[in-house]
Please model this.
Amino acid sequence: MANSASHHIPPSDQPVVANFDSAHLIIGAGVAIFHLATARVVVCYHSRDQYWFLPKGRRDAGENSGTGAEREGFEEVGSLHTQLEILSQHSWKRALQSGYRNRLLPILLRHRQPQAHSASTASSPFVTEPVWTQLMPMPRSAQYILFWHVAETLPPDLETSLTQEIVTNNGAYQVPPPFPAGMTLEERMGLEGKGYEPVRHRNTGVNEEEMLYESYLLPLEEAVGKLRGTIMADVVGKGWEAVRARKAGGG
Model:
């Protein structure tokens, strides 16, 4: 897939008309996190139920879907409340699960949203809009809306600064700064030394269920194979094609 010229995109469903009040609506976000330099993507594995998936979950109240996707990509495995203890005591032996810090990656993407009118964004062809949106029924007459985003692992200097902020802020999750406007993907990859491996953070989940999750940074073909039969396989495929299109255009 890394060298593929095209990717088959499954057809979207027909538009629907439906109405849900706040008590019957759940809004979530998921993310495909790419390591650009090695053409790999983060995939999670449920160690008890034995299935593969991309990080996803409900966004917090007042949180936008993009920020929620970034946070879920980090929190989906492990236990965040032990982050400070791990950082201060270097006690890694208990931690079998891990998460990757990430930030949304602006990509070339066909979409129907109006362009922002601010001077800082009006000239950019790259967006962080969802690549797929899913509608799924939930128990007790609730509707789940899930937005799938594309993100990248963080460069080493940003990893270091956010780790320091975690210590300063008593282990609280820190929202990463956005991808720098005007930076090309080649320039971004140049921020990593040869052979750099993105940091896997341990104990980053928020409940017992997420302690059963494991995460792996896999080559694209292997990841798509493990996700085959789900829309998540196409989130990876469509996302990587958009990354390649941006890179090919010099962006």
User: Anything to note?
Assistant: The radius of gyration is 18 Å. The chain has a mean pLDDT of 84. The beta strands are 25-35, 40-46, 51-53, 56-58, 98-99, 102-104, 132-138, 142-153, 201-202, 213-219.
